[in-house]
Structures are given as structure tokens and as C-alpha cells.
User: Fold this.
Amino acid sequence: MVLLNVFELTLPLKNPGLIFSLILFIILFAPIILNKFRIPHLIGLIIAGAIIGPHGFSLMLRDSSIILFGTVGLLYIMFLAGLEIDIAEFKKNSGKSLVFGMLTFTIPMTLGTLMGLYYLHFSVPTSVLLASMFASHTLIAYPIVSKLGIVKNRAVNITVGGTMITDTLALLVLAVIAGMSVGEVNNQFWIRLGISVVIFGATVMLLFPVIGRWFFKNFDDNISQYIFVLAMVFLGAFLAEAAGIEAIIGAFLSGLALNRLIPHTSPLMNRIEFVGNALFIPFFLIGVGMLIDFRAFFKDWQTINVAIAMTVTATLAKYLAAFFTQKIFGYSVDERRIIFGLSNAQAAATLAAVLVGYNIILGEDALGNPIRLLNDAVLNGTILMILVTCTIASFVAQKGAQNIALLENPDSESATKENDERILIASNNPDTTEELVNLSITVKSKNNKKGLYTLNVIDEEAAANGKEKKAKVYSPESSEHSSSYR
Assistant:
């Protein structure tokens, strides 16, 4: 009887082990299944979240644990964007990032405000807040670009830089509209916001590198270094919120601040990418899917109308921004796909804006129902917009990234054969083996996937005792050791 009670299954699931196991199986099998259909696994995770979520089969609730891990995943995406960016290219393209950032902010703001005012007949504050949701975007497709190894491409650099600009401006619009709705916008508001943002930016960009340099110099433990990096990311996110801006800006700036201290080919960077792509980022995508309520679109025409209008406006505005950026700077079609794919996905700041607007109560109607700054139709329409834009962004970014990767490296295998780069690592001293391996990983070319070898020579005393003298060579191409006798 006790066993029956222990294994009794109720929906939604409440057993922590079963919940975590279900999520891990989704993370495991979504890429495996969808890769056969050439569908980005990001879309599969979002759809899986909708299926198992409270609006699907209600297998799981979007409780505090899902929200916590999802928030970590979102901050992780922004942190990786700042960490993997090429600082030299970023500085060289800072002017172009500014141009794209202003285009991808002003065009959606203009189209979104006009659509809200003249098509949906919303008030001016509601229309402006709605437009700010279109202006912001989330780098949902960034893991696809990173996996294909083109994060140093100029289109990626200006898009990541433009993301910081447009998200900051969009979130400032959110802060102003929210303040106006409760009557808090005045000179003191602007002064306080300006001073806090300057202090926050100086703290992260100037103090974080000093702290990081000291820590990495004095502590070489792998686990300690990774935990330190995570702590700095979330400290930066907290400081951003304390300054009055969104946490994702703090995570991105934390990545920029630690960029020079963490080499892109270092073991620490491998651990950061592995944990994020394997756990935290999939949690965020599944959490976004749990917000989707497909039944809302069959209840009334207003929800469908708002959802279609929002999705079309957001997609058109981001495409126009990418198109004008391509024409201004003479980029290729695939680079335009990268810019559009990275900037079209709506998720992080969009969710923040719609939830803030939904929670602002302007009054009550004749029946006593609350009048919200953003109503239920906009909330449900936002969820559909997130799903559609993330789907489009993933497909377009994957197409552009694959083409660019082929152009930059048309045949990685033949290039490896031509270069024939081989690095031999002495492994006779256990105290220096790890450092030599790390050095080899750092200096090897990006095309060298199987050219690292370890060598351990048996000393003469061992051979004099009746053992054969031989040099053992280990190659990562095979799990077996090959021996050459002298």
C-alpha cells in the first residue's frame, strides 16, 4: 500500500525526480528527432514546452523552479553573446552596430505605434508600449550561429552590438511608460535613472575585469573558476536591475567585461558553453513554450486579429531593418539572413514588457473588471508572436549560417589534410600534462579536430629490468594506443 502511494502519478507531476527526468529526456531527444527533419531543435524545445505545459497536457506547471532555470538560461544566452564576441571586430564595427541598433529600434517603434493606433485602436501609451515589444529582440538563434563557428563574422558582430542598443532603448521606453501610468515620471526620475545607469556601466566594465584578473591569477581550480564566472554574471544582472534596466543588459555587459580573460578555445570556455547549451538554455526555451495557450485563439476573433497583426508587424519591421543594413553596408544575402535571423526572435524583453503592461491596472469597467494597459488579447497574441518569430528566426539564421560557414571553410577535412597540423604532447610528467593539453588546445587551428597526440617514453631503467623499451603514442583519432619500438 505504501508503494502504491509512493508511485501514484497525478497531473501535473509533483515528484521532483520525475519532473527533472522528463525535462532531460525532452532536451535529449528533441535535437535527435528534429535533426532528421532538418528542423532547428530550438523550435522543438518550445513546442515541447507547450505540449507538457499547463495549457497543453498539463504534465507540468510553470512553477518557480522552471522560472528560475529559465531566467538563468536567458541570462546565459546574453552572457555567451558578450563572451564570444570578437572585441577587435566589435570595436571596428561599433559604428555599424550603432546604425543597425537605431534602425532595428526606430522602424519597429514607428510601425508598431501606427499599427496600435490606427488598426487596433489602442491608446497612445498602449501603442507605444506595444511598439517597444517589437523593437526589442532576443538572440534565440545565437546557439545555432555559435555551433557553426561563425561568431566572428561581421554580420554577427553588428547584430550582437545592435541588440544591446535596441534592447536598452526598448526597456527604457518600458520604464517610462510604466512610470507614466502610475504618475512617477519627473525630473528626479530621469536624473536618478541616468546616474544609476552610468554607475552600473562603470562598475561592470571597469571593476569586473580587475576582479576577474585577480581571481584567475590566484585560483586555478576548474570548478572554482566556473563558479566565479557564474557569480559575476548574476551579480551583473542584479546590478542592472538595481540601476533600473533589464537584467539581460547586465549579463551581456558581464560577458564583454570578462571577454579578454577567457580565451575562446580554453577549457573554461568549453565548460561554460557545455553547461549552458546542455541545461540552462533548453530550460529557458521549454519555459517559453509553457506560456503558449493555443486554445485562446479559438475563443474570440480579437485574440487572433491582435496576434496576426503583432506577428506581421514585428517580422516586417525586423526584416526592413536587416534589409536596409545590408544595403547601407553592402553585405551579402546570407549576412542579411544572419542579421534578420538573430534579430527577429521576440522573447526576453518582449515577455518583460507584456507582463509589466498586463499587471498595470488603469481602472475598472462597468462590470467591475480591471482595465489593463495591455489586455488579455495582447498577452495571448504575444505568446503566438514569440513562437512564430522564434521559428522564423531559427530557420533563417540556420540557412544563412550554414552558407557562410561553407564559404569560410568549404572543406574542413581537406584543409586539415593540406595543413597536416599535428601537435605532440609529452605526458610523462603528470604535473605538467594538463597545462600542455590546454596550451595545445589554445594554439591549434580551428580546422584541427584530430591532430593532438600524447607521447610517453618508458625510461631506460624499466627497459633494463627486462621490459621492452617503447614509446607509446596516443591519438584522439582512436581509443587504442599505437606503439613504436626502438
Remarks:
- The chain has two domains: 16-408, 412-485.
